[in-house]
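SECTION: protein entry
WANTED: fold as C-alpha cells:
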Amino acid sequence: MQTVEITRFRVAAANAEALYAARPAMIRDFQADRSGFLDARLIRVSEEEWVDIVFWRSSQDFAESRAKGGNLPGIQAFFALIDELVSSEEGEAREEMNG
C-alpha cells in the first residue's frame, strides 16, 4: 500500500499567490531528489489554511524525505512561506494513485 502524508498549515492570505508560484519548483525538487515520491495535491481550505496531501511509495520513502527537510531551493522557498504547521499525519492509501 502507498503511504499518504497529510499536512495542514497556515499561510498569510497575502502570501497565497506566492505559495502557488513556489509550488512547481518544490514539486520538481521532490521529483528529482525524493525517492518514492508519487504525487501531491495542495488544497486551500480557508483564507489562511491549507492541506497538502502527498503520496509516497512507502512509509520508508516518506521517512527518508522528512529527514532531508528543506534541502533544495525549491523546497526551501515553499516551506519559507508557511507561517504555522497545524498538523502532520501519515496514513495508508487503500486506493493507489497511478504512477
Q: What stands out?
A: The chain has a mean pLDDT of 96.
